[in-house]
Amino acid sequence: RRIFIDAIRTTRKYGLGWMFISQTLSSLDYEIINQIRIFIFGFGLAWGNELRALREIIGGNREAIRLYQNFRDPQSGLGKKEYPFMTIGPISPLSFSGTPLFFNALNYPDEFTKVNFKI
Fold it and tell me: Which Gene3D superfamilies does the entry link to (predicted)?
């Protein structure tokens, strides 16, 4: 475990990024979480230890947590699926404020703009 964490730190110094995909935040070592710059959270972390970890990562932003807890389960609908996400980190031009960015990913790309940018 220590060797792996050291490898993450060392390679990051050289500009090499890592991607970690997990169904729970608690399954990732705290040292690994500290090395991550961009977070993308999907549905399912709204309770218990996962919510506490999520709250800590986003700096306790109550409004962001409230919005995240209102995510609909993508499997709950019978129609077209929408997959809600919350991101934090240098992933968009808005990231300088430290405010999470919310978006819906769709499996029907032609409607992505219409759903996410109500013009």
Answer: P-loop containing nucleotide triphosphate hydrolases (3.40.50.300)
Alpha helices (runs of H) in 14-61, residue ranges in sequence order: 30-35, 48-57
- Both tokens of residue 71? 């995510």
C-alpha 72/C-alpha 101 separation (Å) is: 17
- The C-alpha atoms of residue 24 and residue 53 are separated, in whole angstroms, by 10
pLDDT in tens, the chain (119 residues): 889 899 998 998 898 889 999 999 988 998 999 888 899 999 999 889 999 999 999 988 999 999 999 999 988 877 778 899 999 988 877 667 778 999 888 777 677 777 777 65
Domains of the chain, by residue range, sit at: 2-116
Residue pair 46/70 in contact by the 8 Å Cβ criterion = no
The token duo for 115 is 């759903």
First to last CA, the chain: 49
Judged by DSSP in three states, 4 sits in helix
